[in-house]
Amino acid sequence: MGRKWNNIKEKKASKDANTSKVYAKFGREIYVVAKQGEPDPEANQALKVVLERAKTYNVPKAIIERALEKAKGGADENYDQLRYEGFGPNGSMLIVDALTNNVNRTVSDVRAAFGKNGGNMGVSGSVSYMFDHTAVIAFEGKTADETLELLLEADLDARDIIEEDNLIIIYAEPDQLQAVQEALKQAGVNEFNLVETSMLPQTELSLEEEDEKQLEKLIDALDDLEDVQQVYHNVALRED
């Protein structure tokens, strides 16, 4: 799964470089998740997961607190959680997750982004069957063998554990994300480079350079949309 980690790094690097957009998207997601349950992460596990992920992207505390206060205040903004699937150049596949208060606007914007950048939207299920919903946790300070041992002691399993770029990357079942992170904390891991669930491709595609540039334009166009939260794809992008 090493090359899949490269794609996750690429996505995270892109977000780190566009902090104002990322913070706005996190603010919206925190508000929606807090409003769906309790605005307290100890009573709302979904919120706890979002806040842990926000921490790895260095989302300012003020933005988090503003979103939580908005949820506590009973704001009546309603958002729909949507997933679009589509195709990019030369057989590449994409999944687009969105939060929107205007479904017609969002589907129009997503369709336009695909159409203007060498892609086209597919029907529901046309792409997602080729991806696996997976928890991904990355951190420093232990070996793969040590990590496997501590997970076994906690009666937890992992799909894969790899060492790459001085990091340990754990791929696990999505419902095990918090349990795995808690086991790591108990073992002395206090800093995490990544804690999130992702849609990882079962197989990865390599594109010619021009097709890859076209795909990157498509990904950027989708990421730039206000309503889009996440974009996943099945291409093994070249490292700079």
Automatic annotation (TrEMBL):
Membership in a protein family: Belongs to the TACO1 family. YeeN subfamily.
PANTHER family with a match to the protein in the record: TRANSLATIONAL ACTIVATOR OF CYTOCHROME C OXIDASE 1
Domain (TACO1/YebC-like second and third) ranges: 79-235
Taxon lineage: Bacteria, Bacillati, Bacillota, Bacilli, Bacillales
Entry keywords, A to Z: Cytoplasm, DNA-binding, Transcription, Transcription regulation
GO molecular function terms attached to this record: DNA binding
Domain TACO1/YebC-like N-terminal, residue spans: 3-74
Pfam family, one: Transcrip_reg
GO biological processes: regulation of DNA-templated transcription
Protein name in UniProt: Probable transcriptional regulatory protein BleG1_1703
